Amino acid sequence: MRKEDIKLETEADLDLFGHPAKIKILVTSEKLHVIPEKGFQEKVSFDLKRIEGFNLRQTVGSAFLQIKIGGYYVDIVRFTNSNRYKFSRLITQLNNLKNDLPVSNEILNKPHPLLCEKCGFPLQSEESQCPNCLKKGTIFKRVYSLISEHVGWIFVIFFLMIIGVGLSLVPPRITKILVDEVLTTKRHVEWLPYLVIILICAEFLRAQINMLVGTISTSVGTLITNSLRKKLFKKLEELSLNYYDINSVGTIMTRFSSDVEAFHGFVTQAGQGFLLNIFMIIGIGIMLFSINWILAIYVMIPIPFVLIGTLIFWRSVYPKYFKVWDSQAKLSTFLNNVLSGIKTVKAFSQEEKEFKRFSFYADKLKNSVRVVNLNLSVFNPLMAFIFSLGGLIVWYIGGKNVLEGKLTLGELMAFLSYIGMFYTPLTNLALLSTWMSNFTSASHRIFEILDTEPQVKEPKVYVKLPKIKGNIEFKNVTFGYDPYQPVIKDVSFKIEEGQVIGIVGKSGSGKTTLVNLLCKFYEPQKGEILIDGINIKDIPSYELRKHIGLVLQEPFLFRGTIAENISYGKPDAEIEEIIKAAKIANAHEFIMKMPNGYDTLLGEKGAGLSGGEKQRITIARAVLCNPSILILDEATSSVDTESEKKIQDALQTLWKGRTTIIIAHRLSTLKDVDKIFVIDNGRIVESGSHKELMEKRGIYYNLIIMQSQLASVEEVLIK
Amino acid sequence: MNNKIEYLTPENTKIEEGEFDTLNVFLKNGMSYKGVFAVSCFPIKEPTKFISLFYQTPTGEIEEIGIIKDILDFPEDERILILEILNKHYFGYIIKKIIDIKWKFGFLLFDVETDKGKRQFYLRWQRSSAIDYKEKGKILIDVFEDRYIIPNIEELTPVERNIFTKYIYW
Question: Is residue A446 domain-shared with residue A532, that is, in the same domain?
Fold first, then answer.
C-alpha cells in the first residue's frame, strides 16, 4: 500500500477485547485496513465494495466501529468514548468515499470539540470560552462589570468604613486619658464629664456609621443579586432545551440561590468583612506601637499561631461542611419525595421501610454535624486560649512596666482594650483565601450560564412573520440528542397547508423529536426544515412559535387563575376571546361549575383539576393563539374515555382550516386525517391515508389489528 | 408485546464463535442469529446472571433473542464465548491508586493509577459524574463519558480517601 493511496487514516486506542492498544485504520479508495500496532487484535482488510454500511455501536464506556457485511453488522474497531467524535467523522467520510464524494482526512485529526484548542482544558460546551485561558484578573474584571453601576455606593461604603475604624480606635485612647489624668493622678478631675461625653459621641457615631454601612451594603448587595438573577433568568429563557437535558433543575436552582448570594457576600465582605479587618489591624497596630513598641512586639507573638492554626483548621473542616450541606440536601429531597408520594407508601404498606431509609439519611446528617461541631468545640477554646496568652503577656510585661514606672496604668488599660480588638480580625483574614476561592468558583458557575450560547442559533437578521400558510417540508433531516446516536435519520416529507397529518410509531421511534425540531427546540445536525419555503433557521424562534399551537400529553398549568392560564400565549386577549376559546375546547361547562368561574385560582401544576380538565384548558390556550400550525402530541392519551371524547370533539373543531400534526397512540383517532406517517427507528417507513395503509398490510395495519384485538379483549372483560 | 421471558438454556440454545470474533446463536426452534452481543440485566449486582442476548437486524434495529439465567449452566467453551462477548459490552478503568485530585474551574483533574496504567482525566464536579457502585464504590464518568471505577472507597488508603472525599463527598 503506497502512502499516496491512503485516503483516510486514524487510530483507535483499544483492541476488540478492551485492552489499551494502538490500532491503525487506513482507508484507500478500495480497501479498509485495520492494522494493530499494539494489542491482541488481528490484522484485517475489507473490500470497500463488499461493505454494505457503517455504524457506530455505543456500549457501556466504549464504542465500536461496525461494518455491515453479508447482511449483518460486525465490530471491527473498538475505542474509548473520548474518540467517538473522531469515529463519527470517520463514518461520514467513509460513506462519502463509498458514494464517490470528496473526503477529508484533516477533519479526523481536528482536536476534540470539547477541549480547548490552546491548552486542552475541557469546555462546558463546544462554543464555551475556556476558563483556563481567560487572563488572570479577567474574572474580577467581569465581576466589576456586573457591579459597576453600583461602584459609587461601594466607594461610599469604603469611605464610611475608614471613618468607622478611626472611631473604634478612639475609646481605648480616651480610657488611657481617663485613667492617667483623672482617676489615678487626679490632675484633671474636671475632664471626667467631657471625656465621658467624647466616649458617648464616639460610640454613638460608630453605631451610626455601622448602621449606615450595613444598610448601604445590604441595599447594594440585594440590588446586585436582583439584577444578576434577572440576567440569569433571561439567559435561561434564551437557552435551548439541550441545556436542560444536560443540567438538572436542581443544579440551576443552586446557581440561582447560593451562587448569586456569593455576589451579595462580595459587597458585604467589602464593607464589613476582610477590608474592614485589614484596616482594623493596621489601625490597631499603629496604636499599639505608638503606645509602647516593645510591648507591641510581645503582642505579635501569638499571631503566627493564630494564623496557621486557623488556616489548618479551616482547610480540614471546610470539606466537612460540604458533607453537612449534602446530608441536609439528601434528607430534604428524601422527605419531599416520600411525603409527596405518601399515598403510594401507605398503599404498599412500606412505612417501616421508608422509616429505615429516613433513619439512614437522618443518621448521616447527625454524624456529619457532629464531626463539624466537635471540631469547632476544640478549635474555639484553643483559639480563646491563644488570645488570652496575648493578654497575659501584656498583663505580665505591661504590669512590670507599670510597677517600674515605664508605662502608665492608662496606657496598659488602652493596650489591653486594643489587643481585645486585634486578634479577631486576624482569624477572619486567615480565611480570606478560602472565601476568595469560593467566590471565584461561584462567579465562574454564574459566568458559565451567562456565556453559554444557545444550541439553536437565532438569525442575525430579524425576520418578522406576520402570517404563515402552514406548508411544512423536512429535507433530509438527521438529528440526535447525542450527536453520535441519531434519533431522526435522513427524514424527508412534505405537508401541504391545511392538511391534517397523523404520526404513529412505537415509543422512542422519534415522533416527538420531529415536533421538537419543527418548533425549533433543537436544531438538526443535517438537513433543513422549511415553513412556507423559508428555512426555520432564518426565522427567529419567537416569531416561529407565535404561529404554532402545541398541546402536549402532560398538560402544564401555571399557578394563577384559569383565565390567566388560557390567555398565557396571548396576555392581551379580550374576555370574550377567552370564553370563546374555552367553549371550543369544551372547557366552559366545567369552568362555570366552579364558584369562581374563570377567576378560579389554580394550585401548582393545575392542582384541583382532573387530567381531562387540565388538558381542555391547554387546548383553550392553543385555540386562543389561533395558530396556523397545530401540534397535538399524545394530547388525549392520559385522560379517561369520557374526557377523551370531549377533547376529541374540541380538537376536531380546532384543526379545521389549519395545518395539524397529530401524534397518537390510539390509532382510532387518526381515521379521518389526510395522511399518516409511520415512523420507525428514526425513519418514515410508511405513509398514506388510513385506507391506503390498511390495504398495504404493513406496520400500520399490524398496529391497527393489535389495537382492535386489545379493544375486543376489553369488550369481553366488560361483558 | 410479548411479556414472557424467553430463557436460553443449554438445552434450547447452541452458541458458537462466528466470523470476525462474533457470536452465532442457534435455537432449537430452528432460528439462528449472527453478530450476537450480550448485555447484563444487573451489570453491578449480578454481572454473570440474567444475561440478555441481542442481535442487530439488517435495518440496524436491536432485537432481543432471550435471556440466559445463569452463565454457569452452560458448558465451559460456550461460557467463555458468552463472557468474552459480554465483556465487549462493558469497559471501564479500575482505579488502583489515587495520586492526586486538583480542582479547577468546576472540573476535577484526577491523576490515578488504573488496571490499564496511569491515567489523567477531567471530571465535571457534579453529582451525576460520580455515582454509587455496589455498596461502597463509585463510578466516575469523565467529560468524555469514559468510566473509572473505585470498587470500594474504604479500601483506599486514608490519605487517598481523604483526597477523594474532600471533593466527592456524596
Answer: no
Indicate yes or no: CB of A73 within 8 angstroms of CB of B60: yes
CB A137 within 8 A of CB A443: no
- Per-residue confidence at A540, pLDDT binned at 50, 70, 90? confident
Residue numbers in A near B165 (CB within 8 A): 319, 323
Question: Which residues, listed in sequence order, are joined to residue A683 by a DSSP beta bridge?
Answer: A680
Residues A283, A167 within the same domain: yes
* The pLDDT value given to residue A415: 87
Using DSSP's 3-state secondary structure scheme, residue A181 falls into helix
Is the same domain home to A411 and A482? no
Helix (H, G, I), strand (E, B) or coil at A168: helix
Predicted confidence at residue A11, as pLDDT, reads 92
Of A18, A114, A681, the CB nearest to B60: A681
pLDDT tier at A378, thresholds 50, 70, 90? confident
**For residue A704, what is the domain's CATH number?**
3.40.50.300
Task: Mark out the alpha helices in A74-190 (DSSP H runs).
Answer: 84-98, 138-147, 151-168, 170-177
* B91 → closest Cβ in A60, A71, A319: A60
Task: State the alpha helices, DSSP H only, in B70-146.
Answer: 76-87
A601 forms beta bridges with: A561
Tell me the H-state helices in A394-464: 399-403, 409-430, 432-451
What average pLDDT does range B18-32 have in this prediction? 87
Give the number of other CB atoms < 10 A from CB of residue B125.
Answer: 18
* pLDDT > 70 fraction of chain A, expressed in percent and rounded: 91
A366 in any annotated domain: no
Å between B7 CA and nearest CA of chain A: 23
Range 352-371 of A in CB contact (< 8 A) with B: none
pLDDT confidence of A594, banded at 50, 70, 90? confident
CB A214 within 8 A of CB A272: yes
The pLDDT score that the predictor gives to residue A201 is 92
Please check whether residues A205 and A60 belong to one and the same domain.
no
Which residues on A lie below 8 Å from B59 (Cβ)?
681
Domain that holds residue A414: 138-292+407-451
Which of A132, A248, A323 comes nearest B169 by C-beta?
Answer: A323
* A8-14/A44-47 β-pairing: unpaired
Quick count: other Cβ atoms within 10 Å of Cβ A547?
22
Domain boundary among A109, A129, A146: A109
The minimum CA-CA distance between B80 and chain A, rounded to whole Å, is 13
Query: Which helix (H) or strand (E) segment is A32 a member of?
Result: strand A31-38
In the predicted model, what is the mean pLDDT of residues A298-312?
A: 81
Q: Are residues A100 and A176 in the same domain?
A: no
Q: Do A17 and B88 touch (CB under 8 A)?
A: yes
Is A625 within 8 Å of A570 (Cβ atoms)?
yes
Model confidence, pTM: 0.65
Could you give the CA distance from residue A178 to residue A200 in angstroms, rounded to a whole number?
A: 14
Please provide the size of chain B in residues.
170
- What is the ipTM score, two decimals? 0.90
Note whether A73 contacts B35, CB cutoff 8 Å.
Answer: yes
What's the number of domains chain A is made of?
A: 3
A251 interfacial to chain B (CB closer than 8 Å):
yes
Q: Confirm or reject contact between A77 and chain B (CB < 8 A).
A: no
> What's the pLDDT at A718?
47
Confidence of residue B1 (pLDDT cuts 50, 70, 90): very low
Please tell me which residue of chain B has the smallest CA distance to A62: B91
pLDDT at A430 over 70: no
Chain segment A633-689, per-residue pLDDT in tens? 887 766 666 667 777 777 777 777 789 998 887 777 777 788 999 988 888 888 898
In this structure, is residue A322 part of a structural domain? no
CB contact under 8 A, B90 and A60: yes
> Is residue A522, in this structure, part of any structural domain at all?
yes
**Residue A528 has what pLDDT?**
92
- Every domain of chain B and the residues it spans: 13-87, 93-167
